[in-house]
Amino acid sequence: NSIGSLLSLNPNNANVFRGGEINVTVEEVILGDVLIVRPGERFPVDGVVDEGSGLVDESMLTGESMLVQKKPGDQVFGATVNGSGSLKYTATGVGRDTVHARIVKMVEEAQGSKAHIQRLADSVSSYFVPAVLVVSVLTFFVWFLLGPSPSYLSAIQTAVAVLVIACPCAMGLATPTAVMVGTGKGASLGVLFRNAEALEEMQRVNTVIFDKTGTITKGTPSVVEIMSEGNLMPDELLRLAGSVEARSEHPLAQAVLRKCKEEAVLLKEVSEFESVPGMGASAQLDGKSVSIGNAAFMKTRDIVVPVSHSSFAEAFVETDGKVEGRIVFSDEPRKDSAPTVEALKSMGLDIILLTGDRQQVAESVAARLGIPRVESEVLPGEKADHIKMLQSEGRVVAMVGDGINDAPALAQADVGIALGGGTDAAIEASDVTLLRNDLSAVVHAVTLSRVSIRTIRQNLCWAFGYNILLMPMAAGVMYPFFQTGVPAALVPLVGEHGFLNPIAAAGAMAFSSVSVVLNSLRLGRVRLLDQ
Questions:
Q1: Fewest CB atoms within 10 Å of the CB: 91, 329, 433, 503?
Q2: What is the DSSP letter of 406?
């Protein structure tokens, strides 16, 4: 049902411009096609808006009910609903390459995969079934030799009852039903488990590591101060920094460029641009060597920078080996960060902030959010090593990140959790993807995992306990207790001699299976943090 409901969201037709507006099936849409979607219609494929603006309902994708404003240059996704305004857009993802199709595939694969606990149940069943066959044969011969006349009827009845009552249907259903309901519930909330192993492993996690920029913070830092420490005025410092950063994709570089735009600063062309991820960048400008970066970057260039005790991120600007000044940045935590951290701590999880920022900056953010442990000044390539160290201490680690530099750490963690608003590399390396760009979904993932695995254990305990308790009854252990006769009310169940009726055994076996399925279906009604 969860897969079917996902599939039904995609429209069958699309309005495409090919020498005029024509209506075609979704399968006929190709990359580069220009489409139009009117108010109330669903987007057929993924794309980028060319003309128009409006509000789009992306709840099927993110679980978030708030409408999202779309304008030229913004991305739209297939199966989402255009709420207002006509939008023209160019197709960038069609067929199996749309986000919607990938979600369907991930849910399908997750629901069809096996958790470790399922493999354990399968292993037990592989011994249980032959054992039942042996018990059934032994039961037949025991009652054939010792049963009341006609003994062959008693022998057949008990042997069949053993086979029927011990049918391992409930054991076979115990795990997959809970996995299907749990992953389906997660998909409806924008939490995608890549497979059953991820669902199972999540409940073992005792340590959650958060990346800082773009994960625990908004990821859109802003320039709050430009401090001159040489002969250059702040506007000239900004011009130098902006000219170099114009070629960089780092969030701090984008903050510098936004400041340049606000101040109407004219940038200059640079040459010999070089960038060191997570540290800084350098280039040639007007015959001078200009670089901008953190203290560690300056140290690699043998440049001494003033000691800073600021709790904000800083980037130093130097020309020809001389520090000319610094730019101070602020990146505010997300509004959902503090509640998420508090909720995870209340669930008994240890929280760690892992970042490449300076210690003062990281500790300032951690203090505001109530995060007790900080690992700062960690280069992108070292994040996975920090996780290995924690794992060597016996910790089961979940890593939450959003950037390309987080991909190795996400892959190293026992459970990698990628924010859906992050990069494809991060999402591909993760075990769990949060389609909502909302950290509270981390709490949903942990809760769903814990409740799902608890349900699986309840199912298995019921299934095994049921077989262990009722097999002896089916094998005829009640016979000695009814030597003086069976009460009339019990005759339909145990006959005249105390041997379980195979029809009653079949009913009990069916009840066992139904009870397991019903218990799993309760997962669909589990209450989560913000529901």
A1: 503
A2: G
